[in-house]
């Protein structure tokens, strides 16, 4: 009985885990005067990434206050870590859009743990 | 007719503007080994802030990768800049929960500009 229960759980659990998307949060430090070019770069990256398997959605946030440390923050959803890593690895090799000199990125994957 | 139209627009527009919440994004640098205390501090801040006028919602994100620069990122919605500033100013005076030594915050307000 115990073994049957474990077998059933093993069948159910991967499906549940897959249903939980991962959240990419990527704060950008943008050099002064290059805000418009940074958005153009982001748009090219988005156009590439949304063609890849596992992409769910993305939202680019711009600070209201001009002195914010992170002028832009991208928040995206991916189906899982593997598809996100494969897509960004492919992008690094294939995206021809020129990166912004001096722009810094801090991308990481997150789960929501409290509300 | 033109004046009537402008009068109607002036009645409608402030309501539309108020409907656009502002988004607080607050990345935290948490000293190693103090992750649990940082969450306890965040919970106390949330309990205080959700009692204040203008609060809409909040979500605490924890990085899946242990080497992420920002171990925690809070994303909250407020009705507008004024209520957010009043609430955080009140919190700085009244919240008794001890802050975490060495924890760094980069809070700023954002609009979504691209999807």
From TrEMBL, chains A, B:
<feature type="domain" description="ABM">
    <location>
        <begin position="22"/>
        <end position="88"/>
    </location>
</feature>
<dbReference type="InterPro" id="IPR011008">
    <property type="entry name" value="Dimeric_a/b-barrel"/>
</dbReference>
<feature type="signal peptide">
    <location>
        <begin position="1"/>
        <end position="19"/>
    </location>
</feature>
<keyword id="KW-0503">Monooxygenase</keyword>
<dbReference type="GO" id="GO:0004497">
    <property type="term" value="F:monooxygenase activity"/>
</dbReference>
<protein>
    <submittedName>
        <fullName>Antibiotic biosynthesis monooxygenase</fullName>
    </submittedName>
</protein>
<keyword id="KW-0560">Oxidoreductase</keyword>
<dbReference type="InterPro" id="IPR007138">
    <property type="entry name" value="ABM_dom"/>
</dbReference>
<keyword id="KW-0732">Signal</keyword>
<dbReference type="Pfam" id="PF03992">
    <property type="entry name" value="ABM"/>
</dbReference>
């Amino acid at each position: 009985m115990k073994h049957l229960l474990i077998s059933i759980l093993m069948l159910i659990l991967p499906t549940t885990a897959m249903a939980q998307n991962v959240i990419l949060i990527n704060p950008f430090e943008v050099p002064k005067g290059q805000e418009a070019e940074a958005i153009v770069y982001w748009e090219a990256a988005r156009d590439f990434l949304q063609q890849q398997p596992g992409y769910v959605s993305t939202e680019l946030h711009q600070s209201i206050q001009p002195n914010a440390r992170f002028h832009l923050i991208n928040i995206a959803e991916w189906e899982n870590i593997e598809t996100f890593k494969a897509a960004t690895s492919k992008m690094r090799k294939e995206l021809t859009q020129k990166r912004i000199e001096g722009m810094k990125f801090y991308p990481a994957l997150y789960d929501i743990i409290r509300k």
